[in-house]
Amino acid sequence: MFPAIPTYNMHLPTALSVLFLISASASAAPPPNLYLSARSGSDGAFRLKLASNTSHCLDDKFASDGTRQVYLRKEHCDEGAGTWAFNTAFPGSLTLFEPSNTYALEPEPGPDGPMEDGRKVRLMQPDRGILGQKWIMDDQGRLSVGDPMSTPKLCLSANEDAQPFEDVHLQVCGSGEEDLNSPMKQKWTLDYKIE
């Protein structure tokens, strides 16, 4: 005479599955402290130099189409206060120090998406919502871009033998020690000693 009491045991696996998916989604989000820490102002300026040759550093110039393109400067990297220097305007960003925080490093877009092996990099308006403007430096000095959970990881790479504006691009991240006899380099150092 009383209605049957519903049983929910049959729904338990589904509920657990939902909880598992939520937990997995949360754990897949990159920890914010992985990205380069925000550090702006004059004390936050640094030059991005090759770890194997600190006389070579990242610099930029205006291209014919009006965009700012980066290249590997091979001289005078320690001259000029704030010249060819960067800082970190928001976590993960590599933004120009002068003019202050007006350009951020990101991969050039392409038909197969913004993240691709061999893609050049450029400087665009900073936007903390763009994953391509978020960089992570590992304990080896390699700078990977975008989602740290993605594979393969793509790193900021320089070819010391290439012509300017053809010498800096993304490449699948290597591991271990670099071949000092190879012109391809991926290890960088942040030199905060700006004078």
Automatic annotation (TrEMBL):
Gene3D superfamilies registered for this protein in UniProt: 2.80.10.50
SUPFAM superfamilies, sorted: Ricin B-like lectins
Alphabetical UniProt keywords: Signal
Keyword hit for Signal: yes
PROSITE patterns the UniProt entry points to: RICIN_B_LECTIN
Domain of life, source organism: Eukaryota
Endpoints of the signal sequence: 1-28
Name the UniProt record assigns to this protein: Uncharacterized protein
Organism name: Kwoniella bestiolae CBS 10118
Lineage of producing organism: Eukaryota, Fungi, Dikarya, Basidiomycota, Agaricomycotina
